[in-house]
Write a structure and sequence with these properties.
Chain lengths: 91, 287, 299
């Protein structure tokens, strides 16, 4: 589990591309393609620079019409997922 | 290497697809009847797609003989990705490649089931299948050079299959010694489907579950699948043929097949017809 | 010493010890050499083995018995070792499809399984599996609306400063008798692509455009059991996946060039629209298909 004070950043070598409002990525091992939903896409863009979970939530709240609770929840789930897929580094 | 392929081998129109529908119903995990257009029951040995996917070659650049050379490799690789009892339907005769190597992946083979049907009924049903006359169908059944999907005019989803004559086909499967073969007569499947299908399960050591078995028998009854075809069509049906599941009865060649064609088939195939009780030892028709 | 021929195809210049009449003659310094010689028994290093072929990131060997073996390396060299009595058409069929495709992969290009036409200085591509009618639709549109042809089977995509570029291939199509009939082409004088493979080689030099173009649309054709032609725009991830599925000989190269492919597909799709067309499996839907494509082009 990612501690809220830890800064995370996306792996530099990963290939991703914006396409019709979603980010499409290539899985580094399988070479298969997958897409991120709009919120996840935005998180991914933000993660070009290191962020803590709280910093991410703060920025997203300014851009999307969601409650803080929902937002924190979504961010945590997504971060967990991409940690599992080994798509991020801890900065 | 897994030894998991089970060949469902037959001359066309001899109960092969019927058995696949039964097996699909018996082996699938849901209670719903299997969709005949999405049979989850292995593959077809002439499938261009399986050959191309497993070898990376484009078959349109190859001759039919070169294509046959790919099939052994393609289907042993295919079998690696399948479980126990990987069923493969085939109308090919059991033949070697011209260079003497195996066309069939025998290293991956568990067993074969060979379906046999009265050749006189086959002629009539095959004629419907190919949108031709029973006389022409009877001729093809006596032709040891006969092939399916041999057209050179267009792209074909199936690769060419060499069938031999009707008896040549059955002999090729039953005489080979590489793997065990169970012969199932179409007429026995009609008369007592429970017995026939049970014998197939036993032969393959597939555990018997009476509740599932009864459901599968009901869901694969001839009338039921014929109705389904009427409603939603059947993708394995040739374009020119009206319906794949036609009459299905035993002895319906009478009044349809000319005496000349009957005589031709009997002359050509009497040995195998006697062996499977379509002719008495003295040469009288049994059906 | 063999005569050296110089040709152009896929935006590259080839020097070749064998004649390739399907390609356009060219002048200039060759980037790729095709020579006759000995094909090594094995390639070295980290390789994958397939049916009669071996592949690594920079090397490829394939043995099309009993015609010829081919060795491709570093994206700039092809060695052909023909067997005795081999027919030159047999050798060429494999050379100008699978073998050259691997060379294109080695050069970091994106060879798509697609035919193509030129529409107002832009490229319109038709991607499909074999047998769906790639060649036929391009030729039919050429005949109907006069669009020049740019490719029959393989279309190469490269990039310059992040912009995608479509390269024409060579002026020759492979057609089944059925397509020859549909297009109303006389098969008099047409040769089969190989001695025993009954598909015709059709030269379309007068209608061919040789050069580079910006992409406009990629149509992906698929068969359907329905009876009408259906067209839908493809968006997002689906766009990526349909195109990836039509990379030429992807099953031979697998993930070896995954990053190159991803970058080129993103570039291409950022500039080109993508439509999926379902066409009836049975019957003749060529005219209907042409109209559907033409209205999408004019939109």
């Amino acid at each position: 589990m990612i501690n809220e004070n830890i800064k995370i950043v996306r792996k530099k070598e990963l290939l991703s591309s914006r396409m019709d409002n979603e980010i499409v990525m290539m899985h580094p091992e399988s070479g298969k393609y997958f897409a991120l939903n709009p919120v996840a896409s935005r998180i991914w863009e933000l993660l070009e620079e290191p962020h803590t979970i709280n910093e991410l939530v703060e920025k997203l709240l300014r851009e999307f019409d969601v409650t803080e609770e929902t937002c924190t929840n979504e961010v945590s789930v997504f971060i967990e997922e991409i940690t599992e897929k080994k798509l991020i580094d801890i900065s | 290497m897994k030894k998991n392929i089970v060949w469902l081998a037959s001359y066309p129109k001899s109960g092969n697809t019927w058995c696949r529908i039964f097996l699909s119903n018996y082996l699938n995990k849901t209670d719903e009847p299997s969709n005949i257009n999405k049979l989850e029951i292995g593959g077809i040995f002439s499938s261009r797609q399986i050959i191309e996917e497993n070898t990376a070659y484009d078959i349109s650049e190859l001759t039919a003989n070169e294509c046959d050379e790919l099939r052994n490799f393609a289907f042993s690789k295919w079998a690696e990705n399948h479980e126990e009892n990987a069923f493969l339907k085939t109308h090919d005769a059991y033949l070697l490649l011209p260079n003497g190597e195996n066309m069939f992946p025998i290293e991956s083979t568990k067993a074969a089931i060979c379906f046999v049907r009265n050749p006189l009924d086959v002629a009539v049903s095959f004629a419907n299948h190919m949108a031709t006359t029973p006389e022409k169908a009877a001729e093809k059944m006596c032709d040891s050079e006969f092939c399916l999907a041999a057209s050179i005019k267009k792209y074909n989803q199936q690769v060419r299959q060499r069938l031999l004559s009707w008896s040549g086909h059955i002999n090729s499967w039953t005489i080979q010694k590489e793997f065990p073969v169970l012969v199932v007569r179409y007429e026995d499947m009609l008369e007592n489907p429970n017995n026939s299908f049970k014998s197939i399960l036993d032969f393959l050591n597939i555990p018997f579950d009476s509740e599932k078995f009864i459901k599968a028998i009901v869901n694969s009854s001839f009338e039921k699948i014929k109705n389904t075809e009427k409603q939603i069509g059947f993708k394995e049906k040739p374009a020119k043929c009206n319906s794949f599941f036609n009459v299905g009865k035993s002895g319906y060649y009478k009044n349809i097949l000319s005496q000349e064609s009957i005589n031709k088939i009997i002359n050509e195939h009497s040995a195998v017809m006697k062996k499977y009780n379509y002719l008495s030892p003295s040469g009288d028709l049994m059906i | 010493m063999n005569t050296i021929n110089t040709y152009t195809a896929f935006g590259l210049i080839f020097s070749s010890e064998i004649e390739i009449p399907e390609f356009l003659p060219a002048i200039g310094e060759a980037q790729v050499s095709i020579t006759l010689g000995n094909v090594p028994a094995n390639i070295s290093g980290n390789l994958t083995e397939g049916f009669r072929f071996q592949i690594s990131k920079n090397e490829f060997i394939i043995r099309f018995k009993p015609w010829a073996s081919f060795y491709v390396c570093n994206g700039d060299k092809i060695i052909i070792e023909p067997e005795q009595d081999s027919d030159e058409r047999d050798v060429r069929v494999f050379l100008i499809s699978s073998v050259i495709a691997i060379l294109l992969h080695q050069r970091g290009l994106l060879p798509l399984h697609a035919s193509g036409i030129k529409v107002n200085n832009k490229a319109v591509l038709f991607s499909a599996n074999s047998g769906i009618g790639k060649s036929t639709i391009s030729l039919a549109l050429n005949r109907k609306y006069g669009y020049p042809l740019i490719a029959d089977d393989i279309t190469v995509i490269s990039e310059k400063e992040g912009r995608p570029i479509v390269h024409s291939s060579f002026p020759s199509a492979k057609l089944w008798q059925e397509s020859v009939d549909l297009l109303g082409i006389s098969n008099e004088g047409l040769q089969y692509i190989r001695k025993d493979v009954f598909k015709y080689r059709y030269d379309n030099r007068p209608d061919f455009f040789n050069g580079i173009l910006d992409p406009l649309i990629v149509f992906v054709l698929e068969n359907t059991d329905d009876e009408i032609v259906e067209i839908n725009e493809v968006k997002g991830i689906e766009k990526f996946n349909v195109l990836r599925a039509h990379i030429f000989r992807l099953r031979m190269v697998n993930e070896l060039y995954a990053s190159e492919h991803f970058k080129l597909i993103s570039n291409l799709l950022n500039c080109a629209k993508c439509y999926k067309i379902l066409r009836p499996k049975n019957g003749n839907s060529l005219d209907e298909l042409c109209s559907v494509v033409q209205s999408a082009i004019l939109k």
